[in-house]
């Protein structure tokens, strides 16, 4: 009897060991397959560009670790749901860089980052952040960009990094418009950015503005109208028709541009919960002042009276024009540039903000401060 018990115990233990070994092996195979799939995504997307040595350069992990002092926290420029960004220095190029180290737990998938590299590697414009290179192996994904010494626009407007002069602010809006004109009209394809906001507008050493972060961008033919995509963007910057249909377009990018223009003029965020209801959302609040003939009253109080009244009026009206609730009433980015340079009369907008009806949103808003990618939504709730 004792021998039988011992035999059964050994048999059970052996069977359990086999089961555990099988489970571990299966998990390893699954991870290996996922890794192979990720590499396949990069190999497929970048075969043409990198095979012909066109576009960003492929770095080694050792090069980037050395450039950032092994990703030392002292070199960390920022952190988000995607991972962290570090400052580095490349001796062979004699230049500073910004290295985005994508977190393995990032909610933004490998295909979105591959899309970012694929799209931005095709772009060449002075007002777009330049992608220098990338690394993807051994579970690591690193994107290497030109270093922007003055950081993002939101740190200056909302976090007190510096008080931007009016001249600088107006120039930033013109730079952003120039970047959008290139994306929408001047390339072989139209690029829909889909996440234009102050966090994604970077400033170089001379405070020239450059648009970055193309993780949600999409390429479309110039002849196409609205583009069926996942709902994407940041609450406060998303055009109302996108919440209804999920369709992105040039006009939805222009809407986001308009919100940013108003933020620059007013020095406050698109949504400010600390204000009373009538002032909490930027666009309706500014539109009310416009209707009352008090456009200059919305100017950022931090600038005092140190702004050009003609330019301020122009910027506010152009911002409202771009953020019109109806996408059919918004200007093209080319019309925006003409207005900002006073080459065309400003539009006469309704004295009260139009209220349009839309279908119910295709998905509820997600209560998160980071990008969320699901089957039908990609939203960011601003901090």
List the helices and strands and how they pair.
Elements: H1 2-51, E1 57-58, H2 61-67, E2 76-80, E3 83-90, E4 95-102, H3 110-120, E5 131-137, E6 140-146, H4 153-157, H5 166-186, E7 190-192, E8 201-203, E9 209-211, E10 218-220, E11 227-228, E12 231-234, H6 240-245, E13 247-248, H7 250-266, H8 277-280, H9 282-291, H10 309-322, H11 333-340, E14 372-373, E15 377-380
Parallel strand pairs: 1-5, 12-15
Antiparallel strand pairs: 2-3, 3-4, 4-6, 5-6, 7-10, 8-9, 11-13, 14-15
Helix pairs in contact: 1-3, 5-7, 5-11, 7-10
Describe the structure.
The chain has 383 residues and is α+β, with helices and mostly antiparallel strands. The protein has two domains: 90 residues, Phosphorylase Kinase, domain 1, CATH 3.30.200; 228 residues, Transferase(Phosphotransferase), domain 1 (Orthogonal Bundle), CATH 1.10.510. Helix content is 40%, strand content 16%. The protein has eleven helices and 15 strands. The strands form five sheets. Strands 1-5-6-4-3-2 form a six-stranded mixed β-sheet, with helices on both faces. Strand 14 and strand 15 form a beta hairpin. Helix 5 packs antiparallel against helix 11. The longest helix has 50 residues. About 8% of the residues have low confidence.
């Amino acid at each position: 009897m004792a021998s039988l018990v011992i035999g059964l115990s050994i048999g059970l233990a052996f069977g359990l060991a086999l089961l555990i070994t099988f489970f571990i092996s299966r998990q390893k195979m699954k991870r290996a397959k996922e890794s192979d799939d990720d590499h396949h995504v990069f190999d497929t997307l970048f075969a043409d560009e990198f095979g012909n040595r066109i576009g960003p350069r492929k770095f080694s992990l050792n090069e980037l670790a050395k450039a950032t002092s092994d990703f030392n926290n002292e070199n960390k420029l920022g952190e988000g749901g995607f991972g962290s960004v570090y400052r580095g220095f490349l001796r062979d190029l004699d230049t500073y860089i910004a290295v985005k180290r994508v977190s393995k737990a990032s909610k933004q998938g490998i295909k979105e980052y591959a899309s970012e590299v694929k799209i931005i590697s095709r772009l060449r414009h002075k007002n777009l952040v330049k992608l220098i290179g990338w690394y993807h192996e051994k579970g690591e994904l690193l994107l290497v960009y030109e270093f922007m010494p003055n950081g993002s626009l939101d740190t200056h407007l909302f976090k007190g990094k510096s008080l931007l002069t009016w001249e600088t602010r107006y120039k930033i809006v013109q730079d952003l418009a120039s970047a959008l004109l290139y994306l929408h009209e001047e390339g072989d394809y139209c690029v829909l950015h889909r996440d234009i906001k102050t966090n994604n507008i970077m400033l170089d050493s001379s405070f020239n503005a450059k648009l970055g972060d193309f993780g949600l961008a999409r390429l479309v033919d110039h002849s196409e109208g609205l583009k069926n995509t996942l709902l994407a963007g940041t609450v406060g910057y998303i055009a109302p028709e996108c919440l209804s249909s999920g369709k992105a377009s040039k006009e939805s990018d222009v809407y986001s541009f308009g919100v940013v223009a108003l933020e620059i003029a007013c020095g406050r965020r698109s949504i400010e919960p600390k204000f009373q209801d009538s002032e909490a959302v930027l666009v309706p609040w500014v539109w009310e002042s416009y209707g009352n003939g008090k456009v200059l009253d919305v100017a950022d109080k931090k600038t005092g009276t140190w702004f050009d009244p003609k330019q301020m009026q122009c910027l506010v009206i152009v911002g409202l024009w771009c953020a019109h609730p109806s996408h059919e009433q918004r200007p093209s980015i080319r019309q925006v540039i003409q207005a900002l340079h006073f080459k065309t009369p400003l539009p006469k907008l309704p004295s009260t903000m139009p209220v349009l009806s839309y279908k119910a949103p295709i998905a509820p808003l997600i209560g998160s401060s980071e990008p969320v990618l699901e089957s039908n939504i990609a939203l960011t709730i601003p901090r």
